[in-house]
Amino acid sequence: MKTIGIIGGMSWESSLSYYQQLNVAIKQAKGGLHSAKVNLVSVDFAEIEALQHQGNWAALANKMVGAGLSVQASGADFLLIATNTMHKVAAEVEQALQIPLLHIADATANKLLEDGIKKVGLLGTRFTMEQDFYKGRLEQRELDVLVPQEKGMEIVHQIIYQELCLGKINADSRERYLAEIAELAARGAEAVILGCTEIGLLVQQSHCDLPLYDTTAIHVAAAAAESLAN
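Predicted structure:
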């Protein structure tokens, strides 16, 4: 079994989901007392969030590279960045490391295309919804990506940082997200990507009819498969 390296803590609530789901996946695959081999480096999210909203991506790249090098030095065979937004600096991390990075957008695109989805809505932080590092990577795979209108985008972004990253799960916020999902469906989305690793804490498939693609679950499944691959 390969050792899975993770840069986590962005937020720790979603990193907890990664750890739990990885161990469940490996136990289901191998049975008995098997669990995932995981080397985790967890950062202080307060520092990350401040730099994100300052637009200081160079400093963020340095932090992610440093964390990635620590994961590599620990003996991990490949790396996960356990958040969608920080894949904005994925190229810098890949360039600095010798172990491969399993990119969350690639895993998501693979799953969507496998399921025959062509037009998909995207919810996430404003950075993920607006900028090319994520949306553009999906579009390179010939996916048609829709994002909320400006007001909806701000609502989605604020709930992530002011509630979900603090572990707050509010029914009113769930209804706001479901309204945005309904609006994306009305514009032709065949499914919606939960493109922030915290969103799955708030909205699950049982809450709506439109297919939801939880990037945490997709990333975990890809990582578990890679860990078990020969």
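Summary: Strands lie at 4-8, 38-42, 78-81, 119-123, 144-146, 191-194, 212-214.
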